[in-house]
Every structure is written in structure tokens, then in C-alpha cells.
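Notes from hallway chat w/ T.B., transcribed later so I don't forget. T.B. wanted the structure written out for a chain they're using in a teaching module, and asked if we could keep both sequence and C-alpha cells in one place. Agreed to drop them here.
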Amino acid sequence: MTIEIATDASDELRDALSRLLPQLSSSSPPDYDQLVAIVADPGSVLFVARLDGVIVGSLTLVLYRIPTGVKAWIEDVVVDADARGNGIGELLNLAALDEARKHHVKGVSLTSRPSREAANRLYQRIGFSLRETNVYRYDF
């Protein structure tokens, strides 16, 4: 198994995300132009996990600067249902945390639905702490 940073908006990557992201949410996967923008964006780091050469997972680390320092957010963590239980989610998250350290990030945040029990156990096991907060969202 390998974890790598996506540096090219290939057909393979687009097809993998089209297969993986519906397992996470009902949002549409990125089209080719959107994928090009994601891979080229210096504030986004798209990680992919390969098992036997096939992309079976992904995670996006978003880096942003605010007046009090650099922060990061982990988004869209997904591992193919057939590949779960192999430690792929953990390796993706640890790779993202290593990348965040390289950028001298002050903190890394993420959200996870309570129903994703295995994911929530993973996040706590690798050192994320559950925060008592209200998360608000404004939809357009």
C-alpha cells in the first residue's frame, strides 16, 4: 500500500474519485477542469492511497493562513468499501498530518458524522480530540 500526493489530474484520478466520493456523500465528484484546479491549488493537497496499484482512498488537506497562524482542515476522507479495514484511512490521515507539520500548521481540524463510528474511533486513536462546538454552515 502506498500514499502519495496527486500531482496530475489524470483520467485514472478522475475515475477513482468518481467511484470513491459517492461512497462518502451525495455531492458530485469533480469534473476534469475542477480536478485540474484542485491539484494545482497550493492551498489544497490531495492524497491518494493505492492498494496493488489501484487508487482505493483519498483525502484532501486544505491549508489556509489567518492572522493567528496557519491552519489546516481535512476534508473528503474516503476509503473504498472493499478496501476498508486495511489501515488505509489511518495512513492517509498520518500523511496529511505530516504534510501539515511541514507547513508549520497551528492545528488541523476535521468533522465526521457520528454514524461513521469506525472513522471517529480512528481520529481519536491517532490523536484528534473531540471538541464541544457548534458547527454552522451557510448553503448557497
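Follow-up for T.B.: The radius of gyration is 15 Å. Might be a good example for the class.
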